[in-house]
Write a structure and sequence with these properties.
By secondary structure, this protein is mainly alpha-helical. It has one domain. The chain is built from 4 helices and no strands. It has helices at about 5, 10-20, 25-50, 55-75. Helix 2 runs antiparallel to helix 3 and helix 3 packs antiparallel against helix 4 (about 55-75). The N and C termini lie far apart (about 50 Å).
Length: about 80
């Protein structure tokens, strides 16, 4: 098994961790969660590229764009 095959596990952990953090009521945790989601998008793209899994690459790019949108919204102060 090559290092690229093993990359799916950190990508998995990052995705699950990010989803947990983004679901938080704490603004700082959500903000951090979006950054972890962006890291997971990069890891999944690196993992999918050698196998030419273009649908997964495209999905991660779309999800990254959505995460960037979420990151911008997480920066806005919310009324308490």
């Amino acid at each position: 098994m090559s290092w690229i095959d093993l990359l799916q596990w950190p990508a998995f952990v990052a995705s699950v961790t990010a989803a947990w953090l983004v679901g938080s009521t704490d603004q700082r945790r959500r903000f951090f969660g979006f950054w972890i989601f962006l890291l997971s998008n990069v890891l999944w793209i690196i993992w999918a590229w050698p196998d030419q899994a273009w649908a997964l690459v495209a999905l991660q790019m779309v999800l990254a764009a959505m995460n960037i949108r979420g990151l911008k919204k997480a920066n806005v102060d919310e009324p308490h």
